[in-house]
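Lab meeting, action items carried over

1. Structure of the two-component assembly. Owner: GW. Status: complete.
Input record:
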Amino acid sequence: MLSDQQLARKSLEYRRDTLRWIKHSGAGHTGGSLSCTDILNVLYNRILRVSPQSFSSPTRDRYIQSKGHSVESLFVVLADQGFYQQEELASLCRYESHFVGHPTKKIPGVEQNTGALGHGLPISAGIAIGGKLDNADFRVFTLLGDGELAEGSNWEAAMAAAHYKLDNLTAIVDCNTLQITGHTANVMNNEPLAEKFQAFGWAVRSIDGHDIRELTAALSTPLETGKPSAIIARTVKGKGVSFMENVGKWHHGVPSDEEYAQALSELNSALKALPETC
Amino acid sequence: MSAPAPSLFTEAAIKTAEGLGLTKGRANLEVFADTLLTLATSDKNVLAVTSDSRGSGKLVPFGQALPEQIVEVGIAEQNLVGIAAGLSSVGKNVFAVSPACFLAARALEQIKNDVAYSDNPVTLVGISAGVSYGALGTTHHSLHDFAALRAINNLRIIAPADNFEAREAVLAAANLQEPVYLRFGKAALYNLPATDRFHVDKVRVLRQGKDATFIANGETVIHALLAAALLEQRGITCNVISAPSIKPLDGETVLSLAADSKAVITVEEHMVNGGLGEACAALIAQAAINPKFKIMGIPDEYTVTGSQADIFRHYGISMEGLSETMLGLLEP
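Predicted assembly:
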């Protein structure tokens, strides 16, 4: 298994590549892709029993990206996992490309077509119920945005997941506190979020969503037998690029040439600062 | 075996049905539930997913016989379809059952994205469709479902007309491995004349004639058939087509019969916008044939209050109403 420091390196590389393809395509959801990078990193490199070779196996773990707009970091991570060559992302959002601006099953490694918010948790609950019916031991993970939680369908599914005691289901909230209009707390406050999930019958843990160790600990096993797990991952929108962090306009901002150069410079400096052994 | 709701047919219509030798059937919904139970008994991957709808879906016996194969989601149609899609993606043969009025409106985005676009082969079962709920009113009517769902790619839309079509449609949906919307009313009607074996892509030609054509589906087909029988007494012979599959629509048969007809009337338990009638109109117009043409259904208004029978009669969906409309259309 890769070390924490090796994963730290991957996170920086993923962020660099995510920006590369957003810059190349001229479109993308930059801030949210950067906020969930560490979550995807830990999921794909430590937690999920998924690989290009096992992707058709009925016993594979499932990952459903409900916040589908943060697709660029997912595409980068899937390329790193060997589902396709990263250079294929040169066609992202281009005419006739399979690389649409939201997850689609046409891309190897993507489980379901997502992008409309409030869909991933119900689908994941259905997959988890199917797993229980078959006594299968796969786990189901879904990544939600905090702004997304205003969609009522999430809470329909949250109720059902607790009702069916889906401890094979883990929902991770990429809680970066910003959405397109502004701060989630001002647009439609969803706090206290942990207490909401607890009240719905979930086991809940709040963590630093950029801390590899905390993510690993929270995701390695279900939090509690007989309950679905909610991981409230406190994150920073635009994480890793100083001028993008916590700035709403980077929700789907595309960097100018100068901004891109500065972002790369910051990420490359951080890479250089890592110990050489990792 | 329950009798047809007497108010759906006038005494003259009942006599006409008896003259055709038609036998009384059960509600198509009951046939759906029985067929699904039979399928699920021999295949544990067949699941019913319900939204507090097992009673209205006639699935109480299913739930009692196979409690492990019914998934209840409560009154939550979006979640119904999302969970059904998830179950389907792990290999379950899922029938998601909910009143058509809610299923095809509240869960429309889930139908579009989670079932059709993601190509999860769920069978969506819209129950108590059309104006089956009668005087319960507009909130419970589904007069939009054909129109809304026809605009979604990768979704079959099937509205069986009698017990034969209902059973065959359920079996076809179970075997298709494609997204399907099945639409059932809850009235007990007559069994229609037997035809060759059911093919999910094909219309059924129930009666042939030289002058005009009725194209109908669901619970309106019987009224078109009776109207054709009545018209024959006046020397006018009509084709009567049952078109359970609106999408795909059997254009070849529809066009071949329409081309030789002086007039075509479509009949559906749906608003006249966007349903069977407009699907046929598009076919006919683009084939450059030009019969007189009339779409019979619910006009673009909230319906008059009443039972299904009252509403049908009010809008001319009856033996008498349809035959009068056809006579008017055939006037020089």
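2. GW to write a short summary for the group page. Key points so far: DSSP finds 13 helices and 14 strands in chain B. Chain B has two domains: 10-24+195-330, 26-189.
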